[in-house]
Protein backbone atom coordinates (compact mmCIF):
# COMPACT_ATOMS: atom_id res chain seq x y z
CA UNK A 1 0.00 0.00 0.00
CA UNK A 2 3.00 2.35 0.41
CA UNK A 3 3.13 2.86 -3.34
CA UNK A 4 -0.23 4.56 -3.27
CA UNK A 5 0.36 6.88 -0.34
CA UNK A 6 -1.29 10.23 -0.90
CA UNK A 7 1.79 12.30 -1.58
CA UNK A 8 4.57 9.82 -2.38
CA UNK A 9 4.93 7.26 -5.14
CA UNK A 10 1.62 8.19 -6.71
CA UNK A 11 3.03 11.46 -7.95
CA UNK A 12 6.54 10.62 -9.08
CA UNK A 13 7.61 11.77 -12.50
CA UNK A 14 9.81 14.17 -14.35
CA UNK A 15 7.91 17.14 -12.95
CA UNK A 16 8.47 19.05 -16.20
CA UNK A 17 5.80 18.87 -18.89
CA UNK A 18 6.78 18.99 -22.53
CA UNK A 19 6.52 22.23 -24.48
CA UNK A 20 3.47 20.95 -26.38
CA UNK A 21 1.67 19.98 -23.20
CA UNK A 22 2.34 23.39 -21.71
CA UNK A 23 0.47 25.06 -24.56
CA UNK A 24 -2.77 23.17 -23.92
CA UNK A 25 -5.38 24.70 -21.68
CA UNK A 26 -6.06 22.73 -18.47
CA UNK A 27 -9.71 22.34 -19.47
CA UNK A 28 -8.68 20.75 -22.77
CA UNK A 29 -6.25 18.40 -21.04
CA UNK A 30 -8.99 17.35 -18.64
CA UNK A 31 -11.25 16.45 -21.59
CA UNK A 32 -8.42 14.51 -23.24
CA UNK A 33 -7.89 12.56 -20.04
CA UNK A 34 -11.60 11.72 -19.91
CA UNK A 35 -11.98 10.63 -23.53
CA UNK A 36 -8.64 8.88 -24.03
CA UNK A 37 -8.06 7.59 -20.56
CA UNK A 38 -9.60 4.63 -18.78
CA UNK A 39 -13.24 4.04 -19.76
CA UNK A 40 -13.75 0.87 -17.71
CA UNK A 41 -13.71 0.78 -13.90
CA UNK A 42 -11.41 -2.26 -13.79
CA UNK A 43 -8.75 -0.14 -15.54
CA UNK A 44 -8.62 2.17 -12.53
CA UNK A 45 -7.66 0.06 -9.54
CA UNK A 46 -7.43 2.05 -6.33
CA UNK A 47 -4.29 0.04 -5.49
CA UNK A 48 -2.39 0.31 -8.76
CA UNK A 49 -0.35 3.43 -9.52
CA UNK A 50 0.03 2.42 -13.17
CA UNK A 51 -3.70 2.78 -13.85
CA UNK A 52 -6.29 5.53 -14.02
CA UNK A 53 -5.76 8.98 -12.51
CA UNK A 54 -3.00 7.59 -10.26
CA UNK A 55 -0.90 7.05 -13.39
CA UNK A 56 -1.72 10.49 -14.79
CA UNK A 57 -0.68 12.10 -11.53
CA UNK A 58 2.80 10.59 -11.78
CA UNK A 59 3.66 12.18 -15.14
CA UNK A 60 4.26 15.77 -14.06
CA UNK A 61 2.99 18.42 -11.66
CA UNK A 62 0.62 19.88 -14.27
CA UNK A 63 -0.99 16.53 -14.95
CA UNK A 64 -1.23 15.88 -11.24
CA UNK A 65 -3.04 19.17 -10.65
CA UNK A 66 -5.47 18.55 -13.50
CA UNK A 67 -6.14 14.92 -12.61
CA UNK A 68 -6.78 15.71 -8.94
CA UNK A 69 -9.25 18.45 -9.87
CA UNK A 70 -11.10 16.38 -12.53
CA UNK A 71 -13.80 14.65 -10.50
CA UNK A 72 -14.97 12.44 -13.38
CA UNK A 73 -11.58 10.71 -13.47
CA UNK A 74 -12.16 9.47 -9.92
CA UNK A 75 -15.73 8.29 -10.50
CA UNK A 76 -14.68 4.92 -12.00
CA UNK A 77 -12.64 2.56 -9.88
CA UNK A 78 -11.97 -1.08 -9.02
CA UNK A 79 -11.52 -2.90 -5.72
CA UNK A 80 -9.99 -6.37 -5.61
CA UNK A 81 -9.28 -8.55 -2.60
CA UNK A 82 -5.69 -9.20 -1.52
CA UNK A 83 -4.00 -10.54 1.57
CA UNK A 84 -3.76 -7.61 3.95
CA UNK A 85 -2.20 -6.67 7.22
CA UNK A 86 -3.96 -4.42 9.70
CA UNK A 87 -1.96 -1.44 8.42
CA UNK A 88 -2.91 -2.21 4.81
CA UNK A 89 -6.57 -2.41 5.84
CA UNK A 90 -6.52 1.09 7.30
CA UNK A 91 -4.66 2.51 4.30
CA UNK A 92 -7.05 0.79 1.92
CA UNK A 93 -10.03 2.44 3.57
CA UNK A 94 -8.25 5.79 3.41
CA UNK A 95 -7.70 5.32 -0.32
CA UNK A 96 -11.37 4.49 -0.92
CA UNK A 97 -12.36 7.60 0.98
CA UNK A 98 -9.88 9.58 -1.13
CA UNK A 99 -11.41 8.35 -4.40
CA UNK A 100 -14.94 8.99 -3.16
CA UNK A 101 -13.97 12.48 -2.02
CA UNK A 102 -12.23 13.39 -5.29
CA UNK A 103 -15.17 12.11 -7.34
CA UNK A 104 -17.25 14.95 -5.92
CA UNK A 105 -20.90 14.46 -6.85
CA UNK A 106 -20.19 12.50 -10.05
CA UNK A 107 -22.09 9.28 -10.75
CA UNK A 108 -20.04 6.23 -9.75
CA UNK A 109 -19.03 3.19 -11.81
CA UNK A 110 -17.50 0.56 -9.51
CA UNK A 111 -15.97 -2.85 -10.19
CA UNK A 112 -15.50 -5.21 -7.21
CA UNK A 113 -13.85 -8.62 -7.31
CA UNK A 114 -13.37 -10.49 -4.07
CA UNK A 115 -13.98 -14.23 -4.37
CA UNK A 116 -11.62 -15.90 -1.89
CA UNK A 117 -11.50 -16.62 1.82
CA UNK A 118 -9.16 -14.04 3.28
CA UNK A 119 -7.73 -13.44 6.72
CA UNK A 120 -9.56 -11.35 9.30
CA UNK A 121 -7.89 -8.18 8.00
CA UNK A 122 -9.25 -8.88 4.51
CA UNK A 123 -12.72 -9.44 5.95
CA UNK A 124 -12.54 -6.25 7.98
CA UNK A 125 -11.41 -4.22 4.98
CA UNK A 126 -14.04 -5.60 2.59
CA UNK A 127 -16.86 -5.22 5.11
CA UNK A 128 -15.99 -1.58 5.82
CA UNK A 129 -15.25 -0.86 2.15
CA UNK A 130 -18.70 -2.11 1.14
CA UNK A 131 -20.28 0.05 3.82
CA UNK A 132 -18.48 3.09 2.42
CA UNK A 133 -19.61 2.25 -1.11
CA UNK A 134 -23.20 1.49 -0.07
CA UNK A 135 -23.38 4.88 1.63
CA UNK A 136 -22.87 6.42 -1.82
CA UNK A 137 -25.69 4.41 -3.46
CA UNK A 138 -27.55 7.62 -4.29
CA UNK A 139 -24.96 8.23 -7.03
CA UNK A 140 -24.33 4.66 -8.21
CA UNK A 141 -24.46 4.36 -12.00
CA UNK A 142 -22.83 0.99 -12.80
CA UNK A 143 -22.01 -1.71 -10.26
CA UNK A 144 -20.24 -4.96 -11.19
CA UNK A 145 -19.28 -7.23 -8.32
CA UNK A 146 -18.10 -10.76 -7.57
CA UNK A 147 -18.35 -11.36 -3.83
CA UNK A 148 -19.11 -14.05 -1.20
CA UNK A 149 -22.69 -14.26 0.06
CA UNK A 150 -21.80 -12.90 3.49
CA UNK A 151 -21.31 -9.47 1.94
CA UNK A 152 -24.22 -9.36 -0.51
CA UNK A 153 -26.67 -8.03 2.08
CA UNK A 154 -24.76 -4.77 2.33
CA UNK A 155 -24.64 -4.27 -1.43
CA UNK A 156 -28.28 -5.26 -2.05
CA UNK A 157 -29.65 -3.21 0.86
CA UNK A 158 -30.09 0.00 -1.21
CA UNK A 159 -32.78 -1.83 -3.23
CA UNK A 160 -34.83 -2.02 -0.03
CA UNK A 161 -34.08 1.51 1.18
CA UNK A 162 -34.95 3.20 -2.12
CA UNK A 163 -31.62 4.99 -2.57
CA UNK A 164 -30.74 4.21 -6.20
CA UNK A 165 -32.06 7.15 -8.26
CA UNK A 166 -29.22 7.05 -10.83
CA UNK A 167 -28.47 3.31 -11.10
CA UNK A 168 -28.43 2.00 -14.69
CA UNK A 169 -26.60 -1.34 -14.43
CA UNK A 170 -26.22 -3.83 -11.57
CA UNK A 171 -24.29 -7.08 -12.14
CA UNK A 172 -23.60 -9.39 -9.17
CA UNK A 173 -22.04 -12.83 -8.90
CA UNK A 174 -22.12 -14.61 -5.54
CA UNK A 175 -19.26 -17.08 -5.38
CA UNK A 176 -19.53 -19.38 -2.38
CA UNK A 177 -21.53 -22.58 -2.06
CA UNK A 178 -23.52 -21.69 1.04
CA UNK A 179 -27.13 -22.80 0.68
CA UNK A 180 -29.84 -20.48 1.92
CA UNK A 181 -33.57 -20.81 2.43
CA UNK A 182 -34.02 -17.05 2.19
CA UNK A 183 -34.33 -14.57 -0.62
CA UNK A 184 -33.93 -10.83 -0.81
CA UNK A 185 -36.50 -8.55 -2.35
CA UNK A 186 -35.31 -6.31 -5.16
CA UNK A 187 -37.56 -3.26 -5.14
CA UNK A 188 -37.34 -2.03 -8.72
CA UNK A 189 -39.09 1.32 -8.03
CA UNK A 190 -36.01 2.15 -5.93
CA UNK A 191 -33.99 2.24 -9.18
CA UNK A 192 -36.16 4.05 -11.74
CA UNK A 193 -33.33 4.31 -14.32
CA UNK A 194 -32.24 0.67 -14.10
CA UNK A 195 -31.70 -0.95 -17.50
CA UNK A 196 -29.53 -3.98 -16.70
CA UNK A 197 -29.93 -6.31 -13.73
CA UNK A 198 -27.91 -9.54 -13.57
CA UNK A 199 -27.69 -11.75 -10.51
CA UNK A 200 -25.93 -15.10 -10.34
CA UNK A 201 -26.14 -16.57 -6.82
CA UNK A 202 -24.07 -19.76 -6.90
CA UNK A 203 -26.16 -21.59 -4.27
CA UNK A 204 -26.36 -18.42 -2.24
CA UNK A 205 -29.35 -16.24 -1.47
CA UNK A 206 -32.07 -15.94 -4.08
CA UNK A 207 -33.85 -12.74 -5.06
CA UNK A 208 -37.45 -11.78 -5.70
CA UNK A 209 -38.40 -8.86 -7.92
CA UNK A 210 -40.95 -6.33 -6.72
CA UNK A 211 -42.46 -4.15 -9.46
CA UNK A 212 -44.63 -1.94 -7.28
CA UNK A 213 -47.38 -1.92 -9.89
CA UNK A 214 -45.23 0.29 -12.14
CA UNK A 215 -43.73 0.04 -15.61
CA UNK A 216 -39.93 -0.16 -15.69
CA UNK A 217 -37.19 0.59 -18.22
CA UNK A 218 -35.24 -2.67 -17.86
CA UNK A 219 -33.64 -3.92 -21.07
CA UNK A 220 -31.63 -6.90 -19.78
CA UNK A 221 -32.66 -9.16 -16.90
CA UNK A 222 -30.59 -12.21 -15.93
CA UNK A 223 -31.23 -14.25 -12.77
CA UNK A 224 -29.75 -17.72 -12.99
CA UNK A 225 -28.30 -20.30 -10.62
CA UNK A 226 -27.78 -24.07 -10.30
CA UNK A 227 -31.04 -25.94 -9.79
CA UNK A 228 -29.85 -28.29 -7.06
CA UNK A 229 -29.27 -27.51 -4.31
CA UNK A 230 -31.07 -24.25 -4.84
CA UNK A 231 -31.98 -21.04 -3.09
CA UNK A 232 -35.55 -19.77 -3.37
CA UNK A 233 -35.72 -18.28 -6.82
CA UNK A 234 -38.01 -17.19 -9.61
CA UNK A 235 -41.41 -18.56 -10.60
CA UNK A 236 -43.25 -18.81 -13.90
CA UNK A 237 -45.50 -16.04 -12.62
CA UNK A 238 -42.39 -13.87 -12.27
CA UNK A 239 -41.65 -14.43 -15.96
CA UNK A 240 -45.04 -13.06 -16.97
CA UNK A 241 -44.80 -10.23 -14.44
CA UNK A 242 -41.43 -9.16 -15.88
CA UNK A 243 -42.75 -9.12 -19.42
CA UNK A 244 -45.91 -7.27 -18.37
CA UNK A 245 -44.06 -4.60 -16.36
CA UNK A 246 -40.93 -4.22 -18.53
CA UNK A 247 -42.14 -3.40 -22.06
CA UNK A 248 -38.63 -2.44 -23.26
CA UNK A 249 -37.02 -5.72 -22.16
CA UNK A 250 -34.69 -7.17 -24.81
CA UNK A 251 -32.99 -10.02 -22.90
CA UNK A 252 -34.55 -12.28 -20.26
CA UNK A 253 -32.84 -15.25 -18.58
CA UNK A 254 -34.47 -16.95 -15.58
CA UNK A 255 -34.00 -20.11 -13.56
CA UNK A 256 -37.44 -21.31 -12.41
CA UNK A 257 -37.58 -23.29 -9.18
CA UNK A 258 -40.42 -21.70 -7.21
CA UNK A 259 -44.14 -22.41 -7.52
CA UNK A 260 -46.34 -19.43 -8.39
CA UNK A 261 -49.66 -21.32 -8.05
CA UNK A 262 -50.58 -20.67 -11.66
CA UNK A 263 -51.02 -17.44 -13.59
CA UNK A 264 -51.11 -14.26 -11.45
CA UNK A 265 -54.60 -12.72 -11.63
CA UNK A 266 -53.33 -9.27 -12.60
CA UNK A 267 -51.51 -10.60 -15.70
CA UNK A 268 -53.40 -10.26 -19.02
CA UNK A 269 -54.36 -13.40 -20.92
CA UNK A 270 -52.12 -12.41 -23.85
CA UNK A 271 -48.86 -10.48 -23.58
CA UNK A 272 -47.47 -9.17 -26.86
CA UNK A 273 -43.92 -8.07 -26.23
CA UNK A 274 -42.40 -6.21 -29.16
CA UNK A 275 -38.82 -5.84 -27.93
CA UNK A 276 -37.79 -9.20 -26.43
CA UNK A 277 -34.96 -10.60 -28.56
CA UNK A 278 -33.30 -13.19 -26.32
CA UNK A 279 -35.28 -15.50 -24.02
CA UNK A 280 -33.77 -18.28 -21.88
CA UNK A 281 -35.56 -20.44 -19.29
CA UNK A 282 -34.08 -23.15 -17.08
CA UNK A 283 -36.87 -25.07 -15.34
CA UNK A 284 -37.06 -27.36 -12.34
CA UNK A 285 -38.77 -30.67 -13.15
CA UNK A 286 -41.81 -29.74 -11.04
CA UNK A 287 -43.02 -26.99 -13.34
CA UNK A 288 -44.61 -27.00 -16.78
CA UNK A 289 -44.21 -23.63 -18.53
CA UNK A 290 -47.04 -24.36 -20.95
CA UNK A 291 -49.33 -21.58 -19.74
CA UNK A 292 -46.47 -19.05 -20.07
CA UNK A 293 -45.94 -19.90 -23.74
CA UNK A 294 -49.73 -19.85 -24.28
CA UNK A 295 -49.70 -16.25 -23.02
CA UNK A 296 -46.81 -14.86 -25.07
CA UNK A 297 -46.56 -13.27 -28.50
CA UNK A 298 -42.90 -12.49 -29.23
CA UNK A 299 -42.46 -11.15 -32.78
CA UNK A 300 -38.96 -9.74 -32.15
CA UNK A 301 -37.49 -12.98 -30.77
CA UNK A 302 -34.06 -13.84 -32.21
CA UNK A 303 -32.69 -16.33 -29.66
CA UNK A 304 -34.61 -18.93 -27.62
CA UNK A 305 -33.04 -21.36 -25.13
CA UNK A 306 -35.34 -23.68 -23.18
CA UNK A 307 -34.02 -26.19 -20.63
CA UNK A 308 -36.48 -28.50 -18.87
CA UNK A 309 -35.13 -30.72 -16.11
CA UNK A 310 -37.13 -33.84 -16.90
CA UNK A 311 -38.43 -36.52 -14.58
CA UNK A 312 -38.19 -39.90 -16.26
CA UNK A 313 -41.41 -40.97 -14.55
CA UNK A 314 -43.41 -37.87 -15.57
CA UNK A 315 -41.96 -36.85 -18.92
CA UNK A 316 -44.18 -35.11 -21.43
CA UNK A 317 -44.93 -37.31 -24.42
CA UNK A 318 -45.53 -34.23 -26.54
CA UNK A 319 -45.18 -30.58 -25.51
CA UNK A 320 -47.12 -28.42 -28.01
CA UNK A 321 -46.80 -24.98 -26.43
CA UNK A 322 -43.67 -23.84 -28.24
CA UNK A 323 -45.29 -24.62 -31.57
CA UNK A 324 -48.36 -22.53 -30.78
CA UNK A 325 -46.24 -19.59 -29.56
CA UNK A 326 -44.14 -19.62 -32.73
CA UNK A 327 -47.28 -19.85 -34.87
CA UNK A 328 -48.73 -16.75 -33.20
CA UNK A 329 -45.48 -14.77 -33.12
CA UNK A 330 -43.80 -15.66 -36.43
CA UNK A 331 -40.46 -14.26 -35.15
CA UNK A 332 -37.29 -13.89 -37.19
CA UNK A 333 -35.71 -16.49 -34.89
CA UNK A 334 -32.03 -17.19 -35.58
CA UNK A 335 -30.91 -19.42 -32.71
CA UNK A 336 -32.99 -22.21 -31.14
CA UNK A 337 -31.71 -24.50 -28.40
CA UNK A 338 -33.96 -27.10 -26.75
CA UNK A 339 -32.60 -29.20 -23.88
CA UNK A 340 -34.74 -32.09 -22.60
CA UNK A 341 -37.94 -30.61 -24.02
CA UNK A 342 -40.35 -33.53 -24.34
CA UNK A 343 -41.93 -33.00 -27.73
CA UNK A 344 -42.44 -35.43 -30.57
CA UNK A 345 -40.36 -35.27 -33.70
CA UNK A 346 -43.45 -34.27 -35.69
CA UNK A 347 -44.10 -31.32 -33.35
CA UNK A 348 -40.45 -30.27 -33.59
CA UNK A 349 -40.68 -30.27 -37.38
CA UNK A 350 -43.81 -28.11 -37.18
CA UNK A 351 -41.91 -25.66 -34.97
CA UNK A 352 -39.13 -25.39 -37.54
CA UNK A 353 -41.66 -24.58 -40.25
CA UNK A 354 -42.44 -21.31 -38.46
CA UNK A 355 -38.80 -20.14 -38.27
CA UNK A 356 -37.28 -20.10 -41.78
CA UNK A 357 -34.73 -17.52 -40.60
CA UNK A 358 -33.05 -20.03 -38.24
CA UNK A 359 -29.23 -20.09 -38.45
CA UNK A 360 -28.45 -22.34 -35.45
CA UNK A 361 -30.37 -25.39 -34.20
CA UNK A 362 -29.26 -27.24 -31.06
CA UNK A 363 -31.18 -30.23 -29.67
CA UNK A 364 -30.26 -32.11 -26.51
CA UNK A 365 -32.08 -35.30 -25.54
CA UNK A 366 -34.47 -35.03 -28.48
CA UNK A 367 -34.79 -38.48 -30.00
CA UNK A 368 -34.94 -37.80 -33.72
CA UNK A 369 -34.86 -39.97 -36.83
CA UNK A 370 -34.27 -39.60 -40.55
CA UNK A 371 -37.60 -37.73 -40.72
CA UNK A 372 -35.91 -34.63 -39.30
CA UNK A 373 -32.94 -34.93 -41.65
CA UNK A 374 -35.27 -35.37 -44.63
CA UNK A 375 -37.08 -32.07 -44.00
CA UNK A 376 -33.72 -30.33 -43.46
CA UNK A 377 -32.39 -31.64 -46.79
CA UNK A 378 -32.55 -28.87 -49.37
CA UNK A 379 -34.71 -29.54 -52.45
CA UNK A 380 -32.83 -28.29 -55.52
CA UNK A 381 -35.89 -28.69 -57.74
CA UNK A 382 -38.20 -26.73 -55.45
CA UNK A 383 -36.28 -24.46 -53.05
CA UNK A 384 -39.57 -23.09 -51.67
CA UNK A 385 -40.19 -26.46 -50.01
CA UNK A 386 -36.83 -26.42 -48.24
CA UNK A 387 -37.00 -25.87 -44.49
CA UNK A 388 -34.68 -23.48 -42.62
CA UNK A 389 -32.52 -22.51 -45.63
CA UNK A 390 -30.32 -20.24 -43.50
CA UNK A 391 -29.01 -22.94 -41.14
CA UNK A 392 -25.27 -22.70 -40.51
CA UNK A 393 -25.01 -24.84 -37.34
CA UNK A 394 -26.82 -28.08 -36.50
CA UNK A 395 -26.18 -29.78 -33.15
CA UNK A 396 -28.10 -32.93 -32.21
CA UNK A 397 -26.65 -33.94 -28.87
CA UNK A 398 -28.57 -37.13 -28.17
CA UNK A 399 -28.61 -40.79 -29.15
CA UNK A 400 -30.84 -40.21 -32.17
CA UNK A 401 -31.58 -42.87 -34.76
CA UNK A 402 -30.11 -41.51 -37.97
CA UNK A 403 -28.87 -43.38 -40.99
CA UNK A 404 -25.52 -42.40 -42.46
CA UNK A 405 -27.09 -41.88 -45.87
CA UNK A 406 -29.70 -39.41 -44.62
CA UNK A 407 -27.08 -37.38 -42.75
CA UNK A 408 -24.76 -37.30 -45.77
CA UNK A 409 -27.57 -36.18 -48.08
CA UNK A 410 -28.60 -33.40 -45.70
CA UNK A 411 -25.04 -32.10 -45.36
CA UNK A 412 -24.28 -32.21 -49.09
CA UNK A 413 -27.53 -30.42 -49.93
CA UNK A 414 -26.39 -27.48 -47.78
CA UNK A 415 -22.83 -27.27 -49.11
CA UNK A 416 -21.76 -25.80 -52.46
CA UNK A 417 -20.80 -28.29 -55.15
CA UNK A 418 -18.82 -27.96 -58.38
CA UNK A 419 -22.08 -27.81 -60.35
CA UNK A 420 -23.55 -24.99 -58.26
CA UNK A 421 -23.89 -21.59 -59.89
CA UNK A 422 -24.48 -20.10 -56.46
CA UNK A 423 -26.30 -20.76 -53.22
CA UNK A 424 -28.96 -18.11 -53.89
CA UNK A 425 -30.44 -16.82 -50.65
CA UNK A 426 -29.29 -19.90 -48.75
CA UNK A 427 -26.54 -19.97 -46.16
CA UNK A 428 -23.73 -22.53 -46.29
CA UNK A 429 -23.77 -25.15 -43.53
CA UNK A 430 -20.68 -24.53 -41.37
CA UNK A 431 -20.93 -26.97 -38.44
CA UNK A 432 -22.62 -30.33 -37.77
CA UNK A 433 -22.39 -32.09 -34.40
CA UNK A 434 -24.01 -35.53 -34.39
CA UNK A 435 -21.38 -37.38 -32.33
CA UNK A 436 -23.96 -38.93 -29.97
CA UNK A 437 -26.17 -40.48 -32.65
CA UNK A 438 -26.16 -44.23 -33.24
CA UNK A 439 -25.39 -44.03 -36.97
CA UNK A 440 -22.09 -45.14 -38.40
CA UNK A 441 -19.26 -42.71 -38.91
CA UNK A 442 -19.51 -40.51 -41.99
CA UNK A 443 -16.12 -38.84 -41.57
CA UNK A 444 -14.45 -41.00 -44.25
CA UNK A 445 -17.08 -40.58 -46.94
CA UNK A 446 -15.24 -38.99 -49.92
CA UNK A 447 -17.68 -36.11 -50.39
CA UNK A 448 -17.79 -35.39 -46.66
CA UNK A 449 -13.97 -35.40 -46.59
CA UNK A 450 -14.09 -32.76 -49.33
CA UNK A 451 -16.58 -30.68 -47.32
CA UNK A 452 -14.33 -30.83 -44.25
CA UNK A 453 -11.32 -29.77 -46.29
CA UNK A 454 -13.42 -26.84 -47.55
CA UNK A 455 -14.18 -25.67 -44.02
CA UNK A 456 -17.05 -27.76 -42.63
CA UNK A 457 -16.71 -28.52 -38.90
CA UNK A 458 -17.94 -32.09 -38.39
CA UNK A 459 -18.29 -34.04 -35.15
CA UNK A 460 -19.58 -37.52 -35.95
CA UNK A 461 -19.54 -40.86 -34.08
CA UNK A 462 -16.05 -42.28 -33.55
CA UNK A 463 -15.71 -45.40 -35.73
CA UNK A 464 -13.18 -46.88 -33.30
CA UNK A 465 -15.40 -46.77 -30.21
TrEMBL record:
Could you tell me which SUPFAM superfamilies the record lists for this protein? RNI-like
From what superkingdom does this record's organism come? Eukaryota
What PANTHER family does the record point to?
A: F-BOX AND LEUCINE-RICH REPEAT PROTEIN 6 (PTHR38926:SF5), F-BOX DOMAIN CONTAINING PROTEIN, EXPRESSED (PTHR38926)
* UniProt name for this protein: F-box domain-containing protein
